[in-house]
Amino acid sequence: AVVSTQSTGAVCALVCNFTAATADKPSMLYHSEVETYFHEFGHAMHQICSQTEHTYFSGTRVERDFVEAPSQMLENWCWEKESLKMMSGHYKDGSAIPDDLLEKLVSSKLANVATTTCRQLVFGMFDQDIHTRDSADTAQCFSNAHKLVMGNPAPEGTNFAAQFGHMAGGYDAQYYGYMWSEVYSEDMFQTVFKGSGVLSPEAGLKYRTCILQPGGSVDAFDMLKNMLGREPNSDAFFKAKGFA
Predict the structure, then answer these.
(1) Choice among 33, 35, 40, 75 that is catalytic
(2) 10 Å Cβ neighbour count for 159?
(3) CB of 23 within 8 A of CB of 60?
(4) Is 40 a catalytic site residue?
(5) DSSP 17-80
(6) Which H or E run includes 136?
(7) pTM as predicted
(8) What confidence tens digit (pLDDT) does each residue in 61-80 have?
């Protein structure tokens, strides 16, 4: 057998479906599209910045309930005035977004946050329910979870599970990882970046070294302790949701 000792660089690409340009206007992204781009680019950075001895542990090959932390981490920069000013401007003259509009945009992050948080809980509980049964009426299981969390059942005659792609895309029995990862991402962002500046090169290098570079070669909990200097907690998560 021939064993290569040459290092192989990571290759990663995003294939996106954003608002298209028109005959008289360039492509201008909605803020929600920018947030989606940053989320997916967080996965790309995880892959590109990985430096591991074995490809099996490279990039996003980490615990499923941690893999969304680097992607959700990058979403934070879509809600910070300093970074928003750098990535935006009027398409004709490049003038900056007025401060009052930025204030409203940043404040809108908490709009309907209770509903969106509960929605994630419904998905996670439904996922655990159907994967702890020998067989399941998915429509009924989803309706039960919806009623338990939201206070009302799912609309009659619907079956959300029929188009819940994550259940057949590697997140089956692990969808809870989205919210679990968000706890970690908020703790990292609030502790390291908000404390030293969201554009701090030192904070960015620490994040790259402690979280992105090891890939899955180090347990996620140990990476977090190296990054935070302590064990992670949920305080920043509740603060980001406006609950504390």
Answers:
(1) 40
(2) 14
(3) no
(4) yes
(5) --PPP-SSS-----HHHHHHHHHHHHHHHHHHT---SSGGGSTT-S-TTTTTHHHHHHHGGGG-
(6) none
(7) 0.92
(8) 999 999 999 999 999 999 99
